[in-house]
Amino acid sequence: MKVEETAIPGVLRIEQELQPNADGWFKENFHREKLAELGMDVVQHNVAYFETAGIVRGIHAEPWDKYLSPSSGRVFVAIVDLRSGHGFGQVETFELGTSDALYVPRDVGNSFCTLTPHTTYNFLVNEHWSPERTTVDLFDPELAIAWPLEQLKYTERDAGNPSLAELRRQRA
C-alpha cells in the first residue's frame, strides 16, 4: 500500500497493490493493522453498486472517517474541506480505479460520479451510520467542480443541498 498526502490536510490517496491472476485480479482492500496506522478503526463496511455511468452522490461530510475504494469500475471523486478554518471550501478531485483508495477524515465532504457502468464502491467507516451530516450543493459555482460527464443523475435530496455561502452563514 502506497500512501500519498493530498492538498487537503488529512485526505490521503492510497495506491493498493492489484495482483493479476489467470482469472482477473486480487487486492487486499481491508487490512486492520494498515488502516489502524492511518488512524482508522473500521466498524462498518458499506458497498454500493451503480448500474450506469453518470450517477452522482454528495457532497456529504459525516462525523466519521471514510476509506473509499471501487472494487469494479471507475469513479470521479470531489473532496471539499468543510472543517472550520483557513482550508474551508478547498476542493480536490481524483479519479479512482480498482487499485486506488482515499482516506477522508470526518467533516471533510466527499462526492463521486460513476465513470463506467457496473461500478461497485466500498465505504469503510470508523463509526456506525447516523443521519448527522453536513451537505453542500454539487453544482455550487464557488466550488467550480468540473464534473467529467454532461449527463448526470442525482437524488432530489442532493439537489437541495445548500451552497457553500449558505453553509458559511449558518456557521457564523
Automatic annotation (TrEMBL):
* Single Gene Ontology MF annotation: dTDP-4-dehydrorhamnose 3,5-epimerase activity
Q: Which superkingdom heads the taxonomic lineage of this protein's source?
A: Bacteria
Q: Where is this site: Participates in a stacking interaction with the thymidine ring of dTDP-4-oxo-6-deoxyglucose?
A: W129
Cellular component per GO, a single term: cytosol
> Matching InterPro entries, A to Z?
RmlC-like, RmlC-like_jellyroll, RmlC_Cupin_sf
GO process terms (BP): dTDP-rhamnose biosynthetic process; polysaccharide biosynthetic process
The family line of this record is:
Belongs to the dTDP-4-dehydrorhamnose 3,5-epimerase family.
Q: Could you tell me what this protein is called? A: dTDP-4-keto-6-deoxy-D-glucose epimerase
Query: What are the leading ranks of the lineage?
Result: Bacteria, Bacillati, Actinomycetota, Actinomycetes, Propionibacteriales
